[in-house]
């Protein structure tokens, strides 16, 4: 029996229809996942861009330029995350603008829309399998809204004179030896949840605070050290903590430095493998970039007023018995191995900040060190700063001839502070990953919030949608 002619080719039709269906399912799985991934990345970029815009608006000077400054900052932050106006459309709006598309969402009832900024990213995802069904690209829109109203700056460290940020380490705050610690107008914060997060050891010594020992975990005592002040349980804070908004130095030198023998002065410029001779040596105002290290020995006296130091390679090392005197000095270690002071020198600096992007900072020996952080400008109240990316050690060995004023912040670093004779005086907020205290003298921290680095309260900058 002959098959009916009208039934010929039916299998091919079914196969073709099935193939289209399979391609459609593949497009949904592959291209759909790609769209979802692109939207997720774009949303993260919009969130961070909205926060950057909000912070820039808060700090705009004059304030009436706030929206323009915020727009530039938001677009720049989105571009740094891969979304610029070449592969997407990035918009920054004040939520008080009319006819926004999409409208600002997530504002609380009764909120003032002028306090909120919206970042919108419009992007397209190129398809692979969906082209079979006529979709060569898929458009997406993501947005984020952030509030830009300052609640006022507050001192870094939340008012604690001494903080250790480790989550789980034993001895996150560790005191040993025969020294005494006296914290005035403040207290201690220990973020570790270990049973011996706060450990004291030694045959003598008193740990005194005016507020409290605030510890997430427990206290272990080995020896006879005495705690003078209430001990209270604290809530653990996230680590890493919110990033401080500290301006990264940009020190650039043009040409080589020239040494004037008559005036014993180094002009601004590049220095290579510098071995400083005896005498009183002056670094002229301006930028000085050190490559291959700096060595100061003998009875050399250094004067630096209105200068910026970049330690680009090697170490800055002083073993001098002379002195180091400076005013308005910024020291940036970026590529170098550290800034080290030893010997018996006398060092007096006002308006000084040590910013260590790389390398460590250590002050040892019997040197006299009196350093005070700037009282104006972007580094106001900041004496020593190691960013989160730098976990090098910070060591300060003090004695009765030393005093430090300004915040010491190194949230990824072990910090060691030793008071070796007499009274080592500080007016500082000391913030490290761990903090070790020791020696045979007295460590006095006379905490004054006005001396510390001020930070915009992060609670005033929040993504609402």
Secondary-structure topology with pairs:
Elements: H1 10-58, H2 66-80, E1 88-94, E2 116-126, E3 137-148, E4 153-155, E5 162-164, E6 173-175, E7 180-184, E8 188-190, E9 198-202, E10 206-209, E11 213-215, E12 219-223, E13 226-228, E14 231-233, E15 259-260, E16 265-266, E17 269-276, E18 280-283, E19 286-296, E20 301-305, E21 307-311, E22 315-318, E23 323-333, E24 338-341, E25 346-356, E26 360-363, E27 368-372, E28 382-385, E29 394-398, E30 403-405, E31 407-419, E32 423-427, E33 430-439, E34 442-446, E35 454-456, E36 461-463
Parallel strand pairs: 5-8, 5-33, 6-9, 6-33, 7-10, 7-34, 8-11, 9-12, 10-13, 11-14, 16-18, 17-19, 18-20, 19-21, 19-22, 20-23, 21-23, 22-24, 23-25, 24-26, 25-27, 25-28, 26-29, 27-30, 28-31, 29-31, 30-32, 31-33, 32-34
Antiparallel strand pairs: 1-2, 2-3, 3-36, 4-35, 15-16
Helix pairs in contact: 1-2
Characterise this structure:
This protein is globular. The chain has two helices and 36 strands. The protein folds into two domains: 11-102 and 112-149, no CATH class; 155-458, no CATH class. With 465 residues, the protein is mostly beta strands. The protein has a ten-stranded parallel β-barrel with strand order 19-21-23-25-28-31-29-26-24-22. A four-stranded antiparallel sheet has the order 1-2-3-36, covered by helices on one side. It has a two-stranded antiparallel ribbon with strand order 4-35. The N and C termini lie far apart (72 Å). The chain has helices at residues 10-58, 66-80, and strands spanning 88-94, 116-126, 137-148, 153-155, 162-164, 173-175, 180-184, 188-190, 198-202, 206-209, 213-215, 219-223, 226-228, 231-233, 259-260, 265-266, 269-276, 280-283, 286-296, 301-305, 307-311, 315-318, 323-333, 338-341, 346-356, 360-363, 368-372, 382-385, 394-398, 403-405, 407-419, 423-427, 430-439, 442-446, 454-456, 461-463. Helix 1 packs across helix 2. The model has no long low-confidence stretch (mean pLDDT 87). A hairpin with a 4-residue loop joins strand 15 (259-260) and strand 16.
């Amino acid at each position: 029996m002959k098959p009916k002619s009208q039934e010929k080719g039916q299998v091919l039709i079914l196969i073709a229809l099935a193939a289209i269906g399979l391609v459609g399912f593949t497009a949904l799985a592959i291209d759909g996942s790609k769209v979802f991934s692109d939207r997720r990345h774009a949303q993260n970029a919009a969130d961070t861009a909205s926060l950057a815009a909000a912070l820039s608006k808060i700090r705009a000077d004059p304030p009436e330029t706030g929206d323009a400054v915020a727009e530039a900052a938001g677009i720049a932050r989105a571009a740094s995350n891969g979304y610029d106006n070449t592969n997407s459309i990035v918009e920054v709006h004040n939520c008080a603008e009319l006819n926004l598309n999409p409208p600002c969402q997530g504002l609380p009832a009764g909120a003032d829309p002028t306090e909120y900024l919206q970042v919108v990213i419009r992007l397209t995802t190129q398809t692979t399998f969906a082209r079979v069904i006529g979709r060569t690209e898929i458009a997406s829109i993501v947005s984020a809204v952030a509030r830009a109203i300052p609640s006022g700056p507050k001192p870094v460290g939340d008012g604690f004179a001494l903080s250790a940020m480790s989550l789980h380490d034993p001895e996150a705050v560790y005191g040993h030896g025969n020294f005494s610690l006296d914290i005035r107008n403040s207290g201690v914060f220990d973020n570790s949840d270990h049973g011996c997060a706060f450990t004291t050891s030694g045959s003598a010594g008193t740990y005194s605070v005016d507020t409290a020992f605030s510890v997430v975990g427990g206290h272990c005592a080995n020896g006879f050290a005495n705690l003078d002040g209430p001990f209270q349980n604290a809530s653990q804070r996230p680590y890493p903590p919110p990033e401080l908004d500290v301006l990264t130095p940009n020190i650039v030198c043009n040409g080589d430095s020239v040494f004037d023998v008559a005036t014993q002065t180094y002009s601004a410029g590049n220095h290579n493998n510098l071995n400083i001779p005896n005498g009183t040596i002056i670094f002229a105002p301006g930028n000085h970039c050190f490559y291959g290290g700096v060595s100061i020995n003998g009875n050399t006296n250094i004067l630096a007023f209105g200068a910026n130091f970049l330690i680009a390679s090697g170490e800055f090392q002083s073993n001098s018995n002379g002195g180091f005197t400076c005013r308005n000095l910024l020291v940036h270690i970026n590529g170098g191995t550290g800034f080290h002071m030893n010997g018996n020198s006398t060092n007096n600096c006002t308006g000084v900040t040590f910013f260590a992007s790389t390398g460590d900072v250590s002050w040892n020996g019997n040197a006299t060190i009196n350093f005070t952080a700037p009282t104006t400008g972007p580094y106001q109240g900041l004496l020593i700063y190691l960013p989160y990316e730098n976990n090098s050690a910070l060591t300060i060995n003090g004695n009765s001839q030393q005093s430090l004023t300004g915040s010491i912040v190194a949230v990824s670093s072990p910090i060691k502070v030793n008071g070796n004779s007499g009274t080592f005086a500080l007016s500082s907020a000391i913030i490290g990953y761990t903090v070790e205290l020791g020696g045979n003298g007295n460590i006095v921290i006379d905490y004054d919030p006005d001396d510390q680095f001020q930070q915009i309260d992060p609670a005033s900058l929040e993504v609402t949608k």
